[in-house]
What we know:
The chain is of the alpha+beta class. It has helices spanning about 15-25, 30-40, 70-75, 95-110, 125-130, and strands at about 40-50, 55-60, 65-70, 80-85, 90, 120-125. It is globular and about 45 Å long. The N and C termini lie far apart (about 35 Å).
Amino acid sequence: xxxxxxxxxxxxxxxxxxxxxxxxxxxxxxxxxxxxxxxxxxxxxxxxxxxxxxxxxxxxxxxxxxxxxxxxxxxxxxxxxxxxxxxxxxxxxxxxxxxxxxxxxxxxxxxxxxxxxxxxxxxxxxxxxxx
Length: 131
């Protein structure tokens, strides 16, 4: 925290950038950081350049949430559902995945000004399922 009680992220460059992006969207980052204090790291796979993904599993109370971060073309392979604009969960079909990669990621984001794209996904498991 700085002298104005504003959270100043430090550490991994990608994660710092993401936290700053959330702050710019006026998301209360300090509450996200506080959640980390009650979570237990269950497993972690560092970024693998060959697979272009990293994985972390965190236990919150009676569930384990597995987060996947990496190259959109790789992350999307593991996705079975998507959130609709109204927040509802829907099946994520193969054709839709190709559309996201080709249209959204390829043309709108990654090709514009040489920006790098990251995709994120997660899945929740009971502790028994995860073990």
